[in-house]
Automatic annotation (TrEMBL):
Keyword Glycosyltransferase found: yes
Origin organism lineage: Bacteria, Pseudomonadati, Pseudomonadota, Alphaproteobacteria, Rhodobacterales
Domain of life: Bacteria
Keywords, in A-Z order: Glycosyltransferase, Transferase
The protein, known as: ATP phosphoribosyltransferase regulatory subunit
Length: 353
């Protein structure tokens, strides 16, 4: 049995590395106001957050992760560039349909992390390199993705703004996204909404329903997405392989799709920056779907490190969340990237070696 002290000691080791990199330790409250947080976290965390009502403070949430409260604190009074680190418990309800022992025990666990607010183009490589070095003794397997590339591709599609917004909204839900793409690629049969004197019923107001009907009627007159675009999108979203292999494929793809060349160059430049830090791109796996299974506030580079055990969550994960700083900055923004690791899993790995 691994004690909490053993887990915290491993967390403190990581924290020391983050401090040596110039990070200031920050300790957000365990109990946080829920109103704004519920809108900022993705659907997965929203469904798994512990929420309660306080008679004075209103709706409150047990801390489900550190990134959002750290960004809130930084955007309220932080300078730039800035580096923060933290160590503490996070709390998440478990999926009742998931009986895997490693996830069933994780409603409360220790999390250590590092957040970097900087306009330095090398920031992604710096954060990834730090976690790569920390996890080197554990033979962790690295996977990366880039939500910025996928979102840039969706924004180039010759579709209506409403359809583009719908695809972007559901980009973190692959099954729903695939259904929308298929629907937008086929003609839409017009829907009849006959006039009626019957009273409006249901939870929605009359003006809401009239707006919805107008949107459906407008969508029916929208031409379908040409097959070539859906094919390009599916090819991009299915990219997998070593980072070296994928960068070569991206160079070929952008010859026919120059509108995404800028975002693709970001992926290629990041591979070069990692190589400059002594990290072999052939040892890193790129999976375009990777970012779609992480936090919804990640809108660029994403990464995770796994122990190679299917029943385990990642040992560490992270990514870029520039849009989150725009939302919380109320007119201010700064590029930001960070990551977390789970000391409890590292302690289990050490015990098993």
């Amino acid at each position: 049995m691994i004690s909490k002290r053993d887990k915290r000691n491993l967390g403190q080791r990581a924290l020391a590395v983050f401090r040596d990199a110039g990070a200031e330790e920050i300790v957000p409250d365990i109990l946080l106001p829920a109103e704004s947080l519920l809108d900022l976290y993705g659907e997965d965390i929203r469904a798994r957050a512990y929420v309660t009502n306080d008679p004075i403070r209103g709706e409150m949430m047990l801390r489900p992760d550190f990134t959002v409260p750290v960004v809130q604190a930084h955007m309220a009074n932080g300078a730039e560039p800035a580096r923060y680190c933290y160590l503490g418990e996070v709390f998440r309800k478990q999926d009742m349909g998931d009986t895997r022992p490693s996830t069933a025990r994780d409603n409360e666990y220790l999390q250590a992390g590092f957040e970097l607010f900087s306009r330095d183009p090398d920031a992604d490589a710096e954060v990834f390199g730090m976690f790569h070095d920390l996890l080197r003794p554990y033979d962790a397997q690295a996977v990366i993705g880039d939500m910025g590339l996928l979102m840039a591709a969706v924004r180039t599609l010759p579709v209506s703004q409403a359809r583009r917004d719908a695809l972007l909204h559901h980009i973190w839900r692959p099954a729903r996204f695939a259904r929308l793409l298929s629907r937008f690629s086929a003609p839409v049969a017009p829907r009849e909404f006959p006039d009626s004197n019957a009273p409006w019923a249901g939870m929605r107001r009359q003006d809401e329903m009239e707006t919805r009907i107008a949107r459906l009627q407008a969508d029916a007159s929208t031409p379908p997405l040409p097959d070539i675009w859906a094919k390009r999108l599916r090819e991009l979203f299915s990219l997998r392989g070593t980072l070296t292999e994928v960068t070569a494929k991206l160079e070929r793809i952008t010859q026919d799709w120059p509108e995404i060349a800028g975002s693709a160059k970001g992926v290629i430049a990041r591979a070069s920056a990692l190589a400059a830090r002594g990290i072999d791109p052939d040892t890193i796996r790129y999976d375009a779907e990777h970012g779609r299974n992480t936090m919804e506030y990640y809108d660029g580079f994403t990464f995770s490190f796994s122990a190679g055990r299917e029943d385990w969550p990642p040992l560490a994960s992270g990514g870029r969340y520039d849009a989150l700083t725009r939302v919380l900055g109320k007119g201010r923004e700064i590029p930001a990237v960070g990551g977390i690791l789970r000391p409890g899993l590292l302690a289990e790995l050490e015990q098993s070696q």
